[in-house]
Amino acid sequence: MSYDYNTQRKRMALPEYGRNVQKMVDHIKTIEDRDERNRAAKTIISIMGNLNPHLRDIVDFKHKLWDHLALIANFDLDIDSPYPIPEPSKFVEKPRQVPYGQGDIRYLHYGRIIELMINAACEMEDGEEKEYLITLIVNQMKKSYITWNRGQVADEVIFTNLKQLSRGRLKITDGIKILEIKELIPQVKRKPAGKPHGKQQKPQFAKKKGYTRH
């Protein structure tokens, strides 16, 4: 008995459409009559659209489906497509490298996000919302500092760094509180040591009737 494993089958260009669509596309390549081939292609396009309704929200929905049909057919399908057949290189083009803008981050352990949050807080009007945001910022700064440096840090250090990063624009009010380390980074509870397995051995000198220790 022979088994048909997926690993032994032909690789699918777009697995999201399934093996049956791939088989249908392979089949219409064998149809000699061009008109019949065109009708079969339109039927497959309709099936592909029903299988992926989320594509309907994409601009040029039909165009996208015909491009996918060409890709599934390995660009070897002679039909009258309503759209130009895409170039194969369009689908194998390497993505452009996205530059990572580290920039001039003053404190790497705080990261760019903290600096953006500080800048946003500087633009806010004084009030409860601004005070709440500053509280979130200083607590995240303390957590990042401890995680990065693996040590203790005084709250005054965090306040000083905040002042430096905000260029003195953010002030620490009485309503801003920094949590303790155990509140910022919960300690992992250790499992209690298990009892030794097996039967306990009897004492070397078993107490016998009539025997007295001296």
Describe it.
The chain is mainly α and 214 residues long. The chain has 2 domains: 84 residues; 74 residues, no CATH class. The radius of gyration is 34 Å and the shape is elongated. The chain starts with 17 loop residues before the first helix and ends in a 30-residue tail after the last helix.
At a glance:
This protein is mainly alpha-helical. It has helices at 18-28, 34-51, 61-72, 89-92, 111-123, 128-149, 155-165, 181-184. Helices cover 44% and strands 0% of the residues.
Helix-strand pattern: HHHHHHHH
Number of domains: 2
Shape category: elongated
Helical/strand content category? mainly alpha
Q: How many DSSP-defined strands?
A: 0
Number of helices: 8
User: What's the quaternary structure here?
Assistant: single chain
> How helical, in percent, are the residues?
40-55%
What is the beta-strand fraction?
under 5%
Low-pLDDT regions: none
Record keyword descriptors for this entry:
8 helices; 0% strand; 214 residues; 44% helix; mainly alpha
SSE inventory with pairings:
Blueprint: H1 18-28, H2 34-51, H3 61-72, H4 89-92, H5 111-123, H6 128-149, H7 155-165, H8 181-184
